[in-house]
Amino acid sequence: MARFRAPHLLTVLASTALINTALAAYSLADSYTASNWFDSFIFFDGKDPTNGFVQYKDLKSAAKSGLIAIEGSGDNAAVYMGVDHKTKDPAGRASVRISSKKSFNHGLFIFDIEHNPGSICGTWPAFWLLSDSGKWPMGGEVDIFEGVNEQSDNKMTLHTTPGCQIQNTDFSGQVETPNCDVNAPGQGANMGCGILYPKGKAHSYGKKMNAVGGGVYATMWTSQDIRVYHFPRSAIPSDITAGKPNPAKWGMPAAKFAAGCDIDKHFSGLNIIFNTAFCGDWAGDASVWDKSTCKAKAPTCKEYVQHNPEAFKDAYWMIRSVKVYQEGKMKSRRDGEEAGDAFAQTTMPEMSLADISAPIDNGSSVLHSE
Questions:
Q1: Cis-peptide into 359, omega within 30 deg
Q2: Contact indicator for 143, 155 with CB cutoff of 8 Å
Q3: 330: exposed, middle or buried (C-beta count within 10 Å: 0-12, 13-18, 19+)?
Q4: pTM of the prediction?
Q5: Of 115, 109, 149, residue with least CA distance to 130
Q6: Which of 68, 104, 180, 261 has the greatest number of CB atoms lying within 10 Å of its CB?
Q7: What residues pair up with 210 in beta bridges, in sequence order?
Q8: How far is CA 358 from CA 68, 117, 158, 279, 311, in A?
């Protein structure tokens, strides 16, 4: 009979460490909140790439005109990013488009959105991940939240070069277009592979989402696939609120982009982008506008947006936080290193939160950093 030999203490400790490593959840790598938001993003102030009826403002101009601010204080603080809702500017409605200074390769991105600008005629709000590595769509684009006009359900989309398609499996949304190639035959120009949020399950976008206090969008990007989850405010998983997200417990995602696509080949060096555009190639397209209820308000999108500033008082973002988690060592790049995308560059100097003190008028009580 063999004798039992007790393992050495160091062996036990080493084994325990390996087990803990194997079971380790995602760890926080980057946190964007009201305390550091305007230090972490760059304001794009060039011509809208999607031909929108919009004037993007740099950070200083946006703060001075009340397009950006901080509401609340401490743990309850949130970032306000709105649009001009007072003037009839023939050059386009003032708004903001921002891009994170960091770019990422893989990660779990948690967007806590209290209010979004959707479901308003003429608007085209979105937040997404976009590569700065070359001519679009080189490096890929992941549209997490996007819609136009009075749309009520979110649309999630990938845009790539040729060779990336998806299959309709393991997610609850509905495939609108399966080929992610922006020039895919049989699909509209630049459409990519799109998945519509499940019909009948409200609160994913626009006014319906705002009515329940917003919620969380979580995007998990790995070498195997890209998934998008959504949770209304009352159903956010406790692991997310505790800062220990565990996607294995979240059930089926609203969208899963996988199967016929080499993710690592098509997606790399992505920046976080928030934007509120007007009209342009989607919201303002005649075939889209004419088929919507917005047509009854004005013959064209541009006419409506220009002459009805009061309609856009609620076209604002209120963002509690964006947090990026990583399973291993974070792969990121500081802005300016190998940057080639005009969307992620600006001539504006960096400014701190203390520089933002312009008042806003969006019908809510807003506290500002002085």
A1: no
A2: yes
A3: middle
A4: 0.84
A5: 109
A6: 180
A7: none
A8: 8, 21, 37, 27, 22
